[in-house]
Amino acid sequence: MTPSRTVFNFKRRIAKDLPSKAKLEALSKSLHYGGNPAHKRSPGDFGLTPPAMPRSSKSLCDNAGILKRKEALRLLRKGVLQGMISNWDGKGFPKNIWVVTEDGIPLEAQLENPGNGTYHGYPLEMNDDFREIVLATWEERK
Question: What is the pLDDT of residues 90-125, one digit of tens each?
């Protein structure tokens, strides 16, 4: 069994003042998904090096059923279109993006390359209080 983390980033915030729909659409089209081997048991088609190297302290994308890069990117873009982004000034890329899967699993993506808008993501853990905020905000913005 994977040990759960006990400390999470308390600075995370979902933006309240959202950019226009057009800006969100443009942002969603400019994103990339890279993945992170620490959050993968199976490499799927993510092209990770090493192929998969899960750490026991990390939540795994595999547990959320995300095994293909195309699906990860689709979810990332869906989160942006729902306005599930951290504060963003309209330049560059927001630090975080959140989305909830069709199965009700809240995911968090972190910007890993600010130069080209590449993110990696993972499911929010059950003991992460921010999980409930993501779920509630998702319901409001659907």
Answer: 999 999 999 999 999 999 999 999 999 999 989 999
Q: Residue 93 is part of which domain span? A: 21-141
Is there a domain that residue 7 lies in? no
The answer to whether residue 68 sits within a structural domain is: yes
**For the chain, how many structural domains are there in total?**
1
Cis omega (within 30 of 0) for bond into 37: no
Count of H-run helices and E-run strands, the chain: 3, 4
3-state secondary structure 58-84: CCCHHHHCCCCHHHHHHHHHHHHHCCC
Structure tokens at 62: 């595999």
